[in-house]
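Class, carefully examine what follows:
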Amino acid sequence: MNQKLIQQLEDICSARGVRLTPQRRTVYELIYENKKASSAYELLEQLKISEPKAKPPTVYRALDFLLEQGFIHRVESTNSFVSCCSFGEQKHYSHLLICDQCGNVVELQDDTLIALLNSNVDKHGFQFSNHVIESHGICKTCSSLEVEK
């Protein structure tokens, strides 16, 4: 795991007056290291390698904290989690490209799309807390594998 990234997480938590506990850190590291979105139970199984007595509430509490701090995103359509490319921003827009074959997830930040979404939010006087657009399909790698068959 990138020590510089972990230091950034710890600095953000310190500035906000919240604690990045060892379990929260480990759950974040597991999510960050997975290219695919991870379910809570997949994370629990991975966590049990280092913490054999870990239980579901441990993972769910860590996920709630990481979501609240803006370090990860929930992929609503698959009830799974990915790390945030601009972590630490508690309110921002994300566009997730989700491959239905391999499960890889790519997060995009598009200034034009964000400006349009902000305009729509402002126009309606809406206060948003989280905004994620999910697009499902087949990634470039899986697409090229299909052609090779």
Residues 30 and 40 are 11 Å apart (CA to CA). Helices lie at 3-16, 22-33, 40-50, 56-68, 111-123, 140-148. The radius of gyration is 17 Å. The mean pLDDT is 88.
